[in-house]
Design goal:
Blueprint (H helix, E strand, L loop, with lengths): L1 H21 L7 E5 L6 H14 L4 E5 L2 E4 L2 E12 L2 E10 L5
Antiparallel strand pairs: 1-5, 2-3, 3-4, 4-5
Amino acid sequence: MFDLLLAVGVCLVGYWFYFVFLLGFKQGNIVMTFNERFIHHEDHIQAVKRRLKDDGRHFEYLGDRKFIVDGKPYLFMERTVPGDFGPLQQTILKGQRKAF
């Protein structure tokens, strides 16, 4: 019985670690997944701006991967994650404690 509980506990911790740390779903982050791949950084920034505007957020792009969204500073990060039909490009606006 203890072995089963230990196995379930390890699985839950692994699941939490995967989503919070590896995929960026952490409190204070804004996560966006795009179906298309952006080769050029400027195109990716424009897509992020469109998504923020569609979500009704007030934002400002400061350049050098820095955003102010709803008055809070965020740093633009991108990564590739596995998807159903191939890799997807995921954008994470990581919340910063200090203003830029």
